[in-house]
Amino acid sequence: MRPVQQAGARAAELAALREQIRRGPSAKATEAQRAKGKLTARDRLRLLFDEGTFTEIEELRRHRAMGFGLENRRPHTDGVVTGWGQVHGRKVFAYAHDFRIFGGALGEAHAAKIHKVLDLALATGAPVVGLCDGAGARIQEGVSALAGYGGIFQRNVRCSGVIPQISVMLGPCAGGAAYSPALTDFVFMVRGISQMFITGPDVVHAVTGEVMSAEELGGANVHSTDSGVAAFAYDDEETCLEEVRYLLSMLPANNREMPPAVHCDDSPDRRNEALFELVPANPAHAYDMHAVIAELADDGELFETSPSWARNVICGLVRLGGQVTGIVANQPRVLAGVLDIEASDKAARFVQFCDSFNIPLVTLVDVPGFLPGTAQEHDGIIRHGAKLLYAYCNATVPRIQLILRKAYGGAYIVMDSRSIGADLSFAWPTNEIAVMGPEGAADIVFRRELAAAEDPEALRTRLVKEYTAELMHPYYAAERGLVDDVIDPAETRQVLIRSLAMLATKRAELPSRKHGNPPQ
């Protein structure tokens, strides 16, 4: 009986130790965390995972560092909780910094735990979520801490395009630590509690004299609106983590799987009569492309990425007939839907993501061209626009282009035209595909005639009409095989769903190469 009693006592001792670890370092530390309006690492994991499914690993891990008093402070977990669980019944890995322990700062043992969970996620083909709330590298451990970050960066790159990687910023993230989230697919932030920057406010003030708070320098509003670093920003952690769960429900576990399909009660044959009212026939009149997408998507739902940044282009995930589909669309309500540097970067990144994870693409086109001006030219619109061109040309997933109204110049080509590999291209009867708008074209083509005319304005009006009738009528591109069909706008949803179903078995391979060299 004695060995059994001893084993029972050991088990009770283990249970007590686990309970102590899960409570955290102290009630005071927990109170301090919550006083900042922040949840604890374990609170966050409970919100992320389906109830009762999280399995922790390396819970008993402690650091081995010496000096600066570290030998006397060796808390279990070393400031990060790692493991796996289920999100909507599907396996997901996660790590969560525990700010109550060393301020969530990364040391050698802490890094090794993150390395482990990233390696497991890659080996088993499952998404990984990082719940980030840490003070950067643990200064007392010196280069060992820096090497730990290097190992994380290397794994982020190795996982890129193989498994979905999501970073959720729930506290500070400064210095080199910010590069791990930047390497992942999506960054979520919470207003008021999360900040990201390479150099903090004190350093900025010392070097430049600028005075600003951490929130002004690198808060959620800054990165979701100005820099484009964060794809999503929310007012509270609960909403943020629920949206992370929703995004995961639309993604495949890895690049060898298809996105999860769901049963759809929204009829694939539903007509879209509302589009006649939503989209003005006059190409000079603005409208909200969100309303068009809502009319086409299952149950009107769009999960938009970076909605507050580069708003002249819309990127997001919808379901069409129950199948997850990526949407890239010009937004005529913002800058008339032109492509500029930021819009090109945003769309290119999204196209690459969809192609990595077998998500078909539908591109809704209503674009007057690239944004003109010296600022755009000097800041590299050629280079940035080429990113979007490269992303589309490199994509092998099913690709459908739909031209709603105008599609002018190089922007028409870049927005997934047939000439760069779109599988199907459709157009509404309101489409205008041309090198440029009719007024500009008439001014250039007939410059001499206009200069010599007695009534230049009357001649210009007549020539614009002639140019439009000859080269910009809705069937010009279809007659030349550059558009597969001109369709009734009311039939758009059913045309897209049937076309995607046909393309579902598409197989395409790129030339053998180590990797391409995309424009930067």
**Strand composition percent:** 15-25%
Distance linking N and C termini: 71 Å
Rg over CA atoms, rounded to whole Å, is 27 Å
The percentage helix is 40-55%
Largest β-sheet summary: 8 strands, mixed
User: Care to count the β-strands?
Assistant: 17
Domain CoA carboxyltransferase N-terminal: 7-263
Protein name: Acetyl-CoA carboxylase carboxyltransferase component
Domain CoA carboxyltransferase C-terminal: 267-515
Topology:
Blueprint: H1 2-23, H2 27-35, H3 41-48, E1 55-57, E2 80-87, E3 90-97, H4 108-124, E4 128-132, H5 143-159, E5 165-169, E6 172-174, H6 179-183, E7 186-190, E8 195-197, H7 201-208, H8 214-218, H9 220-227, E9 232-234, H10 237-250, H11 275-278, H12 289-296, E10 303-305, E11 313-320, E12 323-330, H13 341-356, E13 361-367, H14 374-378, H15 381-394, E14 399-408, H16 409-414, E15 424-427, E16 432-434, H17 438-445, H18 447-452, H19 456-471, H20 476-479, E17 485-486, H21 492-503
Parallel strand pairs: 3-4, 4-5, 5-7, 6-8, 7-9, 12-13, 13-14, 14-15, 14-16, 15-17
Antiparallel strand pairs: 1-2, 2-3, 10-11, 11-12
Helix pairs in contact: 4-5, 13-15, 17-19
Structural write-up:
With 520 residues, this protein is α/β, with parallel strands linked by helices. The chain has helices at residues 2-23, 27-35, 41-48, 108-124, 143-159, 179-183, 201-208, 214-218, 220-227, 237-250, 275-278, 289-296, 341-356, 374-378, 381-394, 409-414, 438-445, 447-452, 456-471, 476-479, 492-503, and strands spanning 55-57, 80-87, 90-97, 128-132, 165-169, 172-174, 186-190, 195-197, 232-234, 303-305, 313-320, 323-330, 361-367, 399-408, 424-427, 432-434, 485-486. Strands 10, 11, 12, 13, 14, 15, 16 and 17 form an 8-stranded mixed beta sheet that branches. A 7-stranded mixed beta sheet has the order 1-2-3-4-5-7-9, with helices on both faces. Strands 6-8 form a two-stranded parallel ribbon. Residues 7-263 form the CoA carboxyltransferase N-terminal domain. InterPro entries: AccD/PCCB, AcCoA_carboxyl_beta, ClpP/crotonase-like_dom_sf, COA_CT_C, COA_CT_N.
